[in-house]
Amino acid sequence: MANDIGKAMARLKHRDIRIRRRAVRTLFEHDDPSVLEAFKPLLDDEDAWFVSKALDAYRTWGVISGGQAIEVLLTHRNLDVRRAGANLLAPLGQQGVALALTALTDEDSVVQRKAARALLGASEASVAERLVHHENDAVRIIGMGHPSVSEETLQKGLKDPSETVRHAALSSVFQREMSVQMEALVPFLEAGQQSVPILMWAAEHEPDRLADLTGHLKPRT
Predict the structure, then answer these.
(1) What pLDDT tens digit does each residue of the chain (221 aa) get?
(2) Of 63, 115, 129, 192, whose Cβ has the fewest other Cβ atoms within 10 Å?
(3) Residue 133 in contact with residue 145, Cβ under 8 Å?
(4) Whole-angstrom distance between the N-terminal and C-terminal Cα of the chain?
(5) Which residues, including other chains, have CB under 8 Å from residue 164's CB and lie 6 or more apart?
(6) Domains and CATH numbers, the chain
């Protein structure tokens, strides 16, 4: 078996494309994570078939092989390869936290978003702060739902420049049943946004202010 794997790995560099493809199939049949390194050069192959098979290999054995294998994908010049790497950050768990934090600086918003989702599993408050202060609205939205984001940060999130981020912050405020200044809710009501959840929250937590809040409801046209 080991001899077959060794021969197949050597044949990945063969000039005959049929032999190379047969070698790829042989390696997948043996299902041995130790062969992953042999697929690394195929990420740069001119033939899309070999690139796709290399990505399949990383999807199959990358997490088992550890963070260094996923880093190969995340630092690649090809966007599709980096996105494939970002998809594997969450399964890495704690091993992937440092990589995901680095991936937040990728120029591609999709990679950033996937990295942010992976970081939802990190318990550090500093990670949550990185997310909620990111320039990408989509990343900040994810950050507002991070378990370790502080109540103070959520309060500030209610005034974020992005409407969708403000909504995400408000949703977290309600989920945590936080205390919040009624004045912070008025802009949502005046814009006709989240009116029902706000009034339900007020009825439970600030019933004496409910009448005041309803006065700010955006009139129906």
Answers:
(1) 556 677 888 888 888 899 999 999 999 998 999 999 999 999 999 999 999 999 999 999 999 999 999 999 999 999 999 999 999 999 999 999 999 999 999 999 999 999 999 999 999 999 999 999 999 999 999 999 999 999 999 999 999 999 999 999 999 998 998 888 888 888 887 887 888 888 788 777 777 777 777 766 766 55
(2) 192
(3) no
(4) 75
(5) 137, 141
(6) 1-65 (1.25.10), 66-122 (1.25.10.10), 132-178 (no CATH), 181-221 (no CATH)
pTM for the model: 0.87
* Tokens describing residue 195: 């009116």
The closest of 143, 104, 101, 99 to 120, measured between CA atoms, is: 143
Angle between helices 48-65 and 17-30 (to 10 degrees): 20
**Pairwise CA distance, residues 56 & 158, whole Å:** 42
For helices 137-144 and 109-118, give the axis angle rounded to 10 degrees: 10
What DSSP character marks residue 160? -
